Amino acid sequence: MGLLNKEKKASPPSSTSPCANLRAAYHNCFNRWYSEKFVKGQWDKEDCVSEWQKYKACLSEHLEDKHLSRFLEADEVPVESTIRVDPATAA
Amino acid sequence: MVKAYKQEYTYKHPWEIVSSASWRKFADPENKRILSHIREVDTLNHKLDPSCGKLYTTRAITIHAPGPWFIRKIVGQDICHCVESTVVDGQSRSMQLTTRNISLQKFIEVEEKIKYDPHPDNPSGWTICRQETSIQIRPLSALASMAEKVEQRCAERFVQNSAKGREVMERICKYLEAESSGITL
């Protein structure tokens, strides 16, 4: 405890801190997918579906800011025209 | 009063590496020390269009901006939420990020656009980054006199932070390159 104190005290927890582990799992998976597949033209499907679903479930439970949770529920992304693509609902 | 800033920067790394680094910029724990104003980054929404290789993502970025005491007094908080929308076009190799604040809009509006494209002089090896930031303080009568000072401060902060951002990007690019040359070549 004593040794790490200096780094630890910087940030008090935010509302989405309970999702930190699920967030890290999803972001790691996404980053790997992006640099190993997407940029090489393998964009036929997205990986990380189960990581995303777990993380998103946690967010919808903990995200306090109303402005932000609006984006969670929105099925559209607020840029350009969006084309409807059903996210692969993995079994 | 709107202040707008344009910056251009060339990364001597290919677009694939630079755009990968951009995703990792805020999340990488090693960078939290440098980009200490970034508190949390959450992905709220994402969508892939497999027919044309476009990826749309919305992320929430929580920024800790303590600022001078009178700002805290006025706005009553020192946490600011921003929403970042990203479009990556895999086919044309282009990444565009637009970030806006959603809290404190009564007082200030900041919009930052960053675009990463292959550099025309060396499309397979370099990436050009074009960045545009506009900052607008709402001219409330009581605040009007100090608004300009605040605006200036915010602008300075942004320029400082984008320099820090580049430093972080360069570092991530280097390790991604080291990683990919070790694995695939």
Automatic annotation (TrEMBL), chain A:
TM stretches of this protein: none
The UniProt record lists the keyword Disulfide bond: yes
Alphabetical UniProt keywords: Disulfide bond
An annotated GO cellular component: cytosol
Highest taxon above the source species: Eukaryota
Protein's GO biological process: phospholipid translocation
GO MF assignments: phosphatidic acid transfer activity
PANTHER family the record matches: TP53-REGULATED INHIBITOR OF APOPTOSIS 1 (PTHR46403:SF1)
Assigned protein family: Belongs to the TRIAP1/MDM35 family.
Name recorded for this polypeptide: Uncharacterized protein
Protein species of origin: Rhamnella rubrinervis
UniProtKB/TrEMBL annotation, chain B:
Pfam families: PRELI (PF04707)
Highest taxon in the source lineage: Eukaryota
Matches recorded under InterPro entries: PRELI/MSF1_dom, Slowmo/Ups
PRELI/MSF1 domain segment(s): 2-181
Record-level GO cellular component terms: mitochondrial intermembrane space
Protein name: PRELI/MSF1 domain-containing protein
Organism of derivation: Rhamnella rubrinervis
